[in-house]
Amino acid sequence: MSLVELYYSDTCADCHNVRTMLIELLPKGVSFKEVNALQGEGLERAKRIGISSVPAIALDGELLLVGRIDRDDIKYLLDTIHTV
User: Fold this and answer.
1) Domain around 7
2) Is position 18 within any domain?
3) Total-model pTM
């Protein structure tokens, strides 16, 4: 099962918009996790995969989208996931 992670900050308006789009577009069978990239374990995970700004989306631990992310970007990413 694939895991989509949204790295965010509480004060990031774009992050909230990306979250809404992800939830709307997420295929069944795909896990979704939100990670606060500025605190605790989330900060360490963000550093480990090379995130320097938010919003950022990782798929199965691989950073794929960062910064200004639109609906088409998310749809394209999610269309590449093979669900069971």
Assistant:
1) 3-79
2) yes
3) 0.91
SS3 of residue 24 by DSSP: helix
In angstroms, the CA 82 to CA 9 distance is 29
58 inside domain? yes
Q: What is the pLDDT of residues 31-66, one digit of tens each?
A: 999 999 999 999 999 999 999 999 999 999 999 999
Domain total of the chain = 1
What's residue 83's pLDDT?
56
The Cα 37–Cα 35 span in angstroms is 6
In a domain, 84, yes or no: no
DSSP lists the bridge partners of residue 65 as: 57
Q: Which tokens is 19 given?
A: 């979250």
The residues, ordered by sequence, that sit 6+ positions from 65 with a Cβ below 8 Å of its Cβ are: 55, 56, 57, 73, 74, 77
